[in-house]
């Protein structure tokens, strides 16, 4: 960090987003870093080569482009180090692989991102790691689940699709008492609205595919560690050889510069739409931590500085109808909301949530669960589109 960067640590979050990670005067004054395409790095002589006596040695170990992004993420997360990987899913799987060994027991939140559950139940199970899913609302009571071989607790708040909040402070305190690593998938809030490492988390994971990239055109992930766990993370990723590409690293850094204003708009739009849905006859419940009615709202208010623009709601039914059919009618009635996976881009998206893989979390009984990613469109138009969805149920 240069001298001017030290002063930037006291600035506001948007100033930090604009300035983090790169000093233009380290590269001829150009305000954005160069996109270095590289494998080989040349050494001036054999001795320098033998001693790895220069900053860059081979592109799997970093380039000025990836360093600019790593530095920015380190500043935002308050991390000792960050590795860049080719997807959000890889960020979670490498984050878990780095700290688990055969014979270990891992506690995984039941509202975990679905593909991570698949990784745990297949690959981690094959490697002899015992997986146990826990209730996202467990809080300090998680202590009852610890065994002598519990080495890791994975958290995600709010949970994927059902948005349960977790008491991260309480869980981290228990994990540390048992000398277990605590990892967190913080994709929904981004480090702008929640800083996991400040709440006792050791490893903060982000699917940069979502808000940092922000335009539905990039797959990327970051894993950030505190000082105690950085060495092991760097070694694990060095052993595996995963690298984020320079073009994607450049685009993610570019996305970070505007992430603050985009998130503000996602959040304002989402709160307006969620509030409107709460008052709608065809809606049984809205699952969004920013709503006062939501069970995890108090934890969200206590710990988070803002909300992502993704939430779910339960369609009202007479409980006898075919939930699936009703969800499909609603979704097929939409035209501004695209039907597609992922979120964090500019366009609004909708899907019917499949909770069939949950072990502990209760499925809503009132009707099907619909997840919305609220994009950057005008709220009036989004509400009009949702009305079309409700009308499509009524006319079917
Ligand atoms: C999308 C998502 C991921 C995976 O990100 P990809 O880049 O799509 O692999 C991981 N965790 C959460 C919470 C996500 O929403």
Brief overview:
It contains 13 helices and twelve strands.
Description:
This protein is an alpha/beta fold and 396 residues long. Helix 6 links the parallel strand 2 and strand 3. The strands form two sheets. It has a seven-stranded mixed sheet, sandwiched between helices. A five-stranded mixed sheet has the order 8-9-12-11-10, with helices on one face. The mean pLDDT is 96. 38% of the residues lie in helices and 15% in strands.
Classification by helices and strands: alpha/beta
Walk across the major sheet and give the strand order: 1-7-6-5-4-2-3
**Molecules bound to protein:** pyridoxal-5'-phosphate
Count of helical stretches = 13
The 3D shape can be described as globular
Q: Largest sheet, described in full? A: 7 strands, mixed
Rounded mean pLDDT is: 96
> Percent range for helical residues?
25-40%
- Which stretches are poorly predicted, pLDDT < 50 over at least 5 residues? none
- Secondary-structure element series: HHHHEHEHEEHEHEEHHEHEHEEEH
Distance between the termini: 61 Å
User: What proportion strand?
Assistant: 5-15%
Number of strands: 12
Work out the radius of gyration. Answer: 22 Å
């Amino acid at each position: 960090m240069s001298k001017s960067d030290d002063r930037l640590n006291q600035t506001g979050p948007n100033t930090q987003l604009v300035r983090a990670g790169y000093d233009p005067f380290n590269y001829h004054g150009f305000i954005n870093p160069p996109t270095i395409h590289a494998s080989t790095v040349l050494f001036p002589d054999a001795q320098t080569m033998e001693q790895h006596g220069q900053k860059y040695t081979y592109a799997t170990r970093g380039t000025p482009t990836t360093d600019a992004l790593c530095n920015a993420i380190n500043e935002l997360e308050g991390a000792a180090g960050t590795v860049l990987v080719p997807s959000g899913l890889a960020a979670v799987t490498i984050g878990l692989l780095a700290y688990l060994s055969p014979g270990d027991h891992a506690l995984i939140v039941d509202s975990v991102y679905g593909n991570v559950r698949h990784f745990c139940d297949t690959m981690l199970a094959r490697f002899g790691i015992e997986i146990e899913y826990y209730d996202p609302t467990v809080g300090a009571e998680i202590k009852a689940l610890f065994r002598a071989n519990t080495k890791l607790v994975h958290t995600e708040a709010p949970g994927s699709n059902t948005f349960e909040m977790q008491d991260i402070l309480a869980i981290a305190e228990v994990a540390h008492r048992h000398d277990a690593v605590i990892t967190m998938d913080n994709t929904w809030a981004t480090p702008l609205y929640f800083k996991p490492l400040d709440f006792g988390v050791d490893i903060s994971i982000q699917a940069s595919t979502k808000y940092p990239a922000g335009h539905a055109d990039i797959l990327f992930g970051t894993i950030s560690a505190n000082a105690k766990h950085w060495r092991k993370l760097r070694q694990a990723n060095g052993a595996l050889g995963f690298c984020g590409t320079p073009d994607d690293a450049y685009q993610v850094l570019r996305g970070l510069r505007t992430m603050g204003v985009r998130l503000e708009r996602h959040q304002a739009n989402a709160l307006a739409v969620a509030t409107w849905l709460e008052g709608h006859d065809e809606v049984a419940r809205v699952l969004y931590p920013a709503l006062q009615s939501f069970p995890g709202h108090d934890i969200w208010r206590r710990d988070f500085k803002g909300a992502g623009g993704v939430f779910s709601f339960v369609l009202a039914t007479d409980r006898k109808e075919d939930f699936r059919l009703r969800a499909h009618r609603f979704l097929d009635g939409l035209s501004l909301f695209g039907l597609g996976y992922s979120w964090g881009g500019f366009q609004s998206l909708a899907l019917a949530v499949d909770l069939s893989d949950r072990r502990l979390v209760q499925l809503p009984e009132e009707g099907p669960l619909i997840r919305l990613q609220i994009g950057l469109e005008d709220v009036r138009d989004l509400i009009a589109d949702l009305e079309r969805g409700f009308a499509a149920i009524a006319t079917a």
